[in-house]
Amino acid sequence: MKIYAIKNDNDNTVFSFLIYYEIADKFYIEIADDADEWSVPFYLASFVKKGIKTVNAKQSSEWVKQRIIPPDRQNIGQILKDNNLKNYREYELLMLGEGRCAQDDFSLEQISEDSLPKCIKNRVKKRIDDVIPLPGSDSLLVFFADAKVKICKMGKIAKNYPLLERYLFLNANELKNVKIEVGGTGISWNESLIIPDAELYRYGKTIELKKRDFLDFINMRVVNTAEAAKILNCSRQNIDDLIKRGKIKPIKEMANDKLFLKSDILKREWQ
Q: Which of 38, 140, 195, 226 is deepest in the core (most CB within 10 A)?
């Protein structure tokens, strides 16, 4: 993960941050609580007006695309060659000009995670760690980074998301296909249907886990070595290597197998 301050070159103020996940090759943007529509790039002003502080991966990518050479540029092949780039990659093109573009006076400056403002660090504490659909209901059990577990009734939340309401109505069995967004910033079923983590945290009801909930979690969210290797499309030897390098950690080790949280394995796709 790499973090960049989105800096106004006129006065060096910073009110927004670009986070880049290298393995997933995805971005998302965080906006500080004290930002107003004039202190951020124009594209982000509409999010500030709506009170949105975390901009999802799809929308963040749109901001990045505005600041780089488009892939259909007539001489794109020569441009890539001149800059020693083998392929068209948004991140590498963005870094060529430190995120600058002709539309505004903002640029990117890499910073450490410790340099993020307190308001954003507090958001990270409420990111999604895991999620499971509860059988026979329209609810999801959501595990957050601050150790809280909440039950989220998607029928209730769907009232704020017409696309979700239609999706659940037409695809009643599709709730089980829920995925965690990069960085734990939300959940999704497809690129157009994303529910932010803050929304789930706000509307979810904190609960104490019951035995049935625990058994559902074990059944759906714990995998063995073979299943982990299949998810990551790698060999058992690769899994052992990831363990040795501290990239993943089994929750139980047995003589001939190991058990992992499925969410920890899935996070390898973007961490």
A: 195
